[in-house]
Amino acid sequence: MASVTLKEVSKSFGAFDVLQSIDLTIEDGEFIVFVGPSGCGKSTLLRTIAGLVPVSNGDVFIGGELVTDVPASKRGIAFVFQSYALYPHMNVARNISFALETARMAKAEIRQRLMKVADMLKIGHLLDRRPKQLSGGQRQRVAIGRALVSQPQLFLFDEPLSNLDADLRMEMRFEIAKLHAEIGTTMIYVTHDQTEAMTLADRIVILNHGRIEQVGTPRELYDRPANRFVAGFLGSPRMNFAPISVDVSSGILQGPPGFSFAISNTGNSNPATLGLRPEALRIVEAGTPQSIRGTFERGEDLGYEHIAHVRISGDLIWTVRSTEPLSRYVPGEPVGLGWQIKDLYLFDEAGTRVDA
Ligand code: ATP
Are residues 29 and 115 both part of a single domain? Predict the structure, then answer.
């Protein structure tokens, strides 16, 4: 069993609180992804689980056992870093098997494990090469192989694909997902790439300023974000926001020009911001009833889709994702933005999502 439980884990560097009372339970076999803005504490959290960073407070359990004071080497984990950290003077075979040799494992067993891993990662033909004779993607496969061969109860990945180009990232992402499906070992993966988070994770943990904003399946976080931060974090282009106010006597929300909507429960919620995702909007003729008024600024043709930038007011520019070409719209021309109630998100003053 390699579940992971964090109980009120905090970490400070001097006066700076990097992690603030983190509570989290990861089930055996889960693929968990930590995401969040740069500096939010993702890597530090991963390192506290690894035992590479001592916690200031709280406890870490792996497989139900308290490991807070257990050194990293005794936690049964394997860590894959962004910088592959391969031994430059050893060939691929030795890079992968070195830790097993050090642990005095029988030669035949080492050989068997090495070949199995090489086969799984399709690096059998590279075993005699040195790291400098490998491409970035091949090096990362070797680094994963080295982690795999020790048969850990827990895999930790810290931005393993950041140094690879887009094609290779996609290929390796697929390989890592396949690996997880094959071996079923618990994996915790840090990234700032939301595509990786959305496609790899059983559950995503969104961190911000050393705290957990929300934990859930990719779908849950995308469709039912707990707050404005989560809503704005997942999605590219990100969700469009605009300030709104509610007329308490009528319950009518007032926001961007042309927007009007009567909320049903004015009593217990006080929406301050509305959110609509770019794919929930469509450009319609200016003046179309119920449409939000804006000015077409610019269109971007990405080949498979089109992104329109529409000025709503002042500095407020929204994006619209469209499958239709935007060439017929002229910059500076008024347009309408159609939207549907089912796609409307509302957030209160504190940023918490409230029902529409
Ligand atoms: P990124 O996405 O940029 O890698 P992250 O979310 O992984 O960021 P961490 O590396 O966990 O963030 O760092 C969190 C904060 O803690 C940062 O502000 C960082 O500067 C600080 N920090 C990390 N390690 C140390 C350290 N050893 N001493 C002092 N501050 C540190």
Answer: yes
Distance (angstroms) between ligand 1 centre and the Cα of 324 equals 43
Tell me how crowded residue 160 is: count the other CB atoms within 10 A of its CB. 26
Among 13, 156, 212, which is best to mutate for testing ligand 1, by the most ligand atoms less than 8 A from CB?
13
Tell me: pLDDT of 267 over 80. Answer: no
The answer to whether the bond into 131 is cis (omega within 30° of 0) is: no
Given a cut of 80, is residue 322 above it in pLDDT? Answer: yes
The pLDDT of residue 266 is 53
Bridge-based pairing state of the strands 65-66 and 240-243: unpaired
Which residue shows structure tokens 């509302």?
Answer: 346
Query: In angstroms, what is the C-alpha Rg of the chain?
Result: 25
Please list every protein residue whose CB sits less than 6 Å from any atom of ligand 1: 13, 18, 36, 38-44, 192
Q: Are residues 39 and 103 in the same domain?
A: yes
* Count of domains for the chain: 2
How many whole angstroms from 328 Cα to the centroid of ligand 1? Answer: 47
| CATH code of the domain containing 304 | 2.40.50.140
- Closest residue by Cα to atom 4, ligand 1, is 38
Question: In terms of domains, do 268 and 219 share one?
Answer: no
The pTM score is: 0.92
Residues 61 and 171 in one domain: yes
